[in-house]
Amino acid sequence: MLIGEVAAATGVSTKTLRFYERRDLLPTPSRLPNGYRAYDRTAVARVAFIRQAQHAGFTLAQIREILAIRDGGQAPCAHVDALIHQRLEQTQRRIAELHETRATLQQLAQRSDQVDPSCDGYCRIIQHAPAPRHEP
């Protein structure tokens, strides 16, 4: 398959396919005599997997690891399971941080109507905000 055919079949651009190739997500395709890339039939399924993994929140580095395990003849499911739990934990922490940020912004929004706009400092709305938590 030519690069344009793979792009059409997967819904990604030819630029994205080249990017995946540079990032070792797609194997380097063979070249036709005219220099065009000639992808094998597995490219479409591989690109679909990459897109699904990205949508699930995996980084390209993690996807490359998963693909390398599969390409090595092993099932990557145990590795994927560990990555899922790690990502879930990160997501839970991020959600908690976002809830805290929302609460702070709501407090600031309530106070902003009561603050004199001609303050001497940088901005009293922010200067009188609750102190940030220190990272452990």
Structural class: mainly alpha
Q: Unreliable segments (pLDDT under 50, ≥5 consecutive)?
A: none
Secondary-structure element pattern, one letter each: HHEEHHHH
Tell me how many strands there are.
Answer: 2
How much helix is in the residues?
Answer: 55-70%
Strand order of the largest sheet: 1-2
On the 0 to 100 scale, the average pLDDT is 90
> What is the name of the CATH topology of the largest domain?
Multidrug-efflux Transporter Regulator, Chain: A, Domain 2
- How would you sum up the global shape? elongated
Beta strand %: under 5%
Biggest β-sheet strands, sense, barrel: 2 strands, antiparallel
The CATH C-level class name of the largest domain:
Mainly Alpha
Q: Total domains, how many?
A: 2
| Termini Cα gap | 52 Å
Radius of gyration: 24 Å
Number of DSSP helices? 6
CATH structural architecture of the largest domain:
Orthogonal Bundle
What do you see in this structure?
The model has no long low-confidence stretch (mean pLDDT 90). This protein is mainly α and 136 residues long. Strand 1 (30-31) and strand 2 form a beta hairpin. Helix 1 (3-10) packs across helix 3. The protein has 2 domains: 3-74, Multidrug-efflux Transporter Regulator, Chain: A, Domain 2 (Orthogonal Bundle); 82-127, no CATH class. Strands 1-2 form a two-stranded antiparallel ribbon. It is elongated. The N and C termini lie far apart (52 Å). The protein has 6 helices and 2 strands; from the N terminus they run ααββαααα. It has helices at 3-10, 14-22, 42-55, 60-71, 77-112, 124-127, and strands at residues 30-31, 37-38. It is 61% helix and 3% strand.
